[in-house]
Design goal:
Layout (H helix, E strand, L loop, with lengths): L9 E2 L9 E6 L23 H15 L16 E3 L12 E4 L5 E6 L3 E7 L5 E6 L1 H6 L1 H9 L6 E5 L9 E2 L1 H8 L9 E3 L5 E3 L1 H12 L3 E4 L14 H4 L5 E7 L1
């Protein structure tokens, strides 16, 4: 396969994690996939050519000097957390992943859902969660923090790129799913002229994390829908590639 000159580009969290915690979020440029997956698609399940996905993943490993192939999950919009240090994880059908072992790379894929990275201040553990509205409402962030076993005041969290409230229109059933667990979540929904709601995923994630304790939260400022040059967006394009949020211990 021909290799384009462009290199993969990444967002790197700006947070106070220890130097041994490494993390990155892939952007859509610098790969070999053709439209509508152009060009750094990392999703093997979206209809892209397998050889293009393999090359894109190789480029990411090389560019980031990853110590191992990321542990790609079968994401199901649920709350299951895969522990990469535990035996018998099987197919890893899960929406969050944790490790305490250096050289093991956690990863989730997104194209509008919110990726949330976690790191312990003492670098004893890291994790990443896939927080679409279903998983967020069901408690995927709470499950991830519980499985990490780190006190909230010793945790850092970074909210990665996701669809913003301006572009994320939802029905009453979505709002109700959050209000049933947290009546104050109504502040993250704004009524629109079509009788539906604009949903702020970042605000909902921050509420859920704040309820757990004093977790230091950063990020949450990028909109995947509104920036087609840098981000894939399923809501915008329907058929598109997937980006990845990666975290590991060096």
């Amino acid at each position: 396969m021909s290799r384009a000159a462009a290199q993969p580009q990444f967002l790197v969290p700006e947070w106070d994690a220890p130097a041994s915690v490494r993390a990155a979020f892939t952007l859509r440029g610098g790969g070999v996939s053709r439209a509508p997956f152009d060009s750094l698609n990392l999703g093997a399940h979206v209809g892209d050519a397998p050889e293009a996905v393999a090359e894109n993943r190789r480029r990411v490993r090389e560019r980031l000097a990853l110590p191992a192939e990321p542990a790609w999950l079968e994401q199901v919009h649920g709350t299951r957390v895969a522990d990469l240090d535990a035996a018998g994880e099987g197919a890893r059908a899960a929406d969050a992943v944790i490790t305490r072992t250096a050289g093991t790379v956690c990863a989730i894929q997104v194209a509008d859902c919110m990726p949330v990275l976690f790191a312990a201040r003492d670098a004893c553990a890291v994790a990443v969660a896939h927080a679409g509205w279903r998983g967020l409402a069901a408690g995927v962030l709470e499950e991830t923090v519980a499985r990490l076993g780190v006190r909230p005041r010793e945790l850092l969290a970074w909210l990665g790129p996701a669809i913003s409230a301006r572009h994320f229109e939802v029905g009453e059933e979505v709002r109700t799913a959050f209000l049933e667990r947290d009546p104050g979540a109504g502040a993250a929904f704004s009524a629109n002229s079509r009788g539906r709601w604009q949903c702020d995923l970042a605000a909902l994630a921050r509420r859920r994390l704040a309820a757990l304790g004093p977790i230091a939260v950063s990020g949450g400022t990028w909109c995947t829908y509104g920036d087609p040059a840098r981000f894939f967006s399923f809501r915008r394009d329907r058929r598109c590639g997937r980006m990845a949020a990666l975290i590991w211990l060096a």
